[in-house]
Design brief:
alpha+beta, six-stranded antiparallel β-sheet, 2 helices, Thiol Ester Dehydrase, Chain A, elongated, 6 strands
Length: 139
């Protein structure tokens, strides 16, 4: 797994029970996904000159494992777990740096998407070759 995001749980991100609310877990994981795609392919939405291809999330499975409170420092690591014909599966792990505990994990299925035609497209051999070099196998 590689580090793809560092953040802090701000007081305004916490719910009425004092814990970081779900919407901000998702936001941190989303930010991490862009860093992961940049690490993997050098992909950057702001520099997608062709404007034709992008990556879209089609499934998220989040497991909340430990409380996150205001002021907690968080780090997210990611690993590529699976490459399909049009999709990839990426796992993310959010760790509370002070406690060392895993706060949450996310399994995300992302699809290569034609932004003009609005449909999934096959992952090219070039992209597949790059991704396969980063594929992390389960022990």
């Amino acid at each position: 797994m590689i580090s793809v995001h560092k953040g802090i749980a701000q007081p305004w991100q916490c719910d009425v029970m004092g814990h970081m609310t779900t919407r901000f877990y998702v936001a941190m994981f989303d930010d991490a996904s862009y860093h992961f795609l940049h690490h993997l392919f050098g992909w950057n939405g702001a520099r997608n000159e062709s404007g034709k291809l992008g990556w879209v999330d089609v499934r998220h499975t989040i497991d909340y494992q430990d409380e996150v409170n205001a002021g907690d420092l968080l780090e997210i690591h990611a690993a590529l777990k699976k490459i399909g014909g049009k999709s990839m599966t990426v796992t993310y792990e959010m760790t509370n740096l002070a406690s060392g505990e895993v706060a949450a994990t996310l399994e995300s299925v992302i699809v290569l998407f034609d932004l003009k035609k609005r449909c999934a497209v096959t992952i090219s051999d070039d992209l597949r070759s790059i991704a396969e070099q980063q594929l992390e196998q389960d022990p």
